[in-house]
Amino acid sequence: MGTALKTTQLHIAFGKRIQDLRKEQGMTQEDLAELVGVDRSYMGFLERGEKNATLDKIGKIAKAFEISVKNLFDF
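Now predict its structure.
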């Protein structure tokens, strides 16, 4: 069995929340990635639930949206 991270419902829900907030604020993935300090492809992986964000990245995403970290998990 491989060691690849499997997509979980939490990853999917978190990614959807990021995507929804980004679209509500009229941002592209590139815009958000720049604010967070990551590559656009990484943001795409997060939005699809394919990557597990670090606490540091979660904090930067919340800051980019000007919301609390808690509100990122409001799904």
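The mean pLDDT is 92.
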